[in-house]
Amino acid sequence: MRPDIHRKNVQESLDLWAEAEKNQRTLSFDDYGDVHLVYTSVVEHAPKLELELKQQAVLNMVAKIHTELREFAAATKQVSAEHLLMQLPGLGKFAASGKIGNLRNEWQTLQANQTKILTKIATERQKIFNEFKGLLPKMPTHFENDGTAILRNDFTSTEHENLIKQEITDVNKYKLNANGYYQTFVDDLPRLPWSIEIDGATQSFGLGLKEEKLEAIKKVFGNDKLALSTVSKLMNQAAPGLVIGPNNDIYPRNNRIFIKHDQDYGEPTFLRISSKDNCINFEASTYSKSIAVVFNADDNNKGGKDWPVNQDERWKGSPGPNNYGERYRLAIQIDKQAASNGILKPVDGTKIEASFEIRLCPALNLSKT
Length: 369
What we know:
8-stranded mixed sheet; 3-stranded antiparallel sheet
């Protein structure tokens, strides 16, 4: 895995490039696309290598600029990346000579203009969001730079966590089938992507592979059939839904408002499970693709309205961890010994992690922004 550290953007990279030229230093790029100063000893003792490093750095710098131009264009929808490229006449000179020239100033001007446009777009989206904000559950809300509204509830308080604990306690009432499993667990095995960790090694399974998944899960439980039977009540696509009821209790919904989902994509659920000592680590997340906020008309067929949301390129494709309109998540450390005795309960002293999140990016007619 790549280390989770800050990576330089184009502006930071150009700033370092200008500093290098000022101090007569050369540069190179690492495997993550970050620009770095080259040791002076390389310049002194390996001039050929120094030239190769510089040439590679120029190519990487140009690629980084093109990437950010595409991101700018996708965010604002005002002009294409190719049109933005025309605002950087110094880029061609830089690619040919490796000298920064006026490129940094051109980039700063372009970035300032794009930021201004994006701020205007974000403001327009927040105005639209405010039209239906009062109809939504009163969940904590913040906005991304492009005006996307994020409504999110993390069940962090003791009172809220107890609501989830009660939901899990109620799972113990579920009945097992003739083979000693919760039937929905068996039905969902081929329907869900799984990530299963055994002895420090992670196996990932896509759709299908029912028998392979079952054998891997058995190993997580050390072939403890009774413990697996108990926890099978939780290992299904309905598990993250245990947060929906409590969330609605905390933040009641207006019965006339709902978020419309694109049914063609369904609501994929991703499951992760691993075992350590007396603890079974279980996590489930479900994602859906939202396309509109809908306010139904009243009994007299008055007052109905739809607000399209999440229509831009970033929302295309199947919902998942990086693309969703709604997400509900449940993570619990299950007491394995209790599960062996037929009781589903968290390990004493551990916290249950649960969250419900809604992401709404109001659609705009960008030609008028």
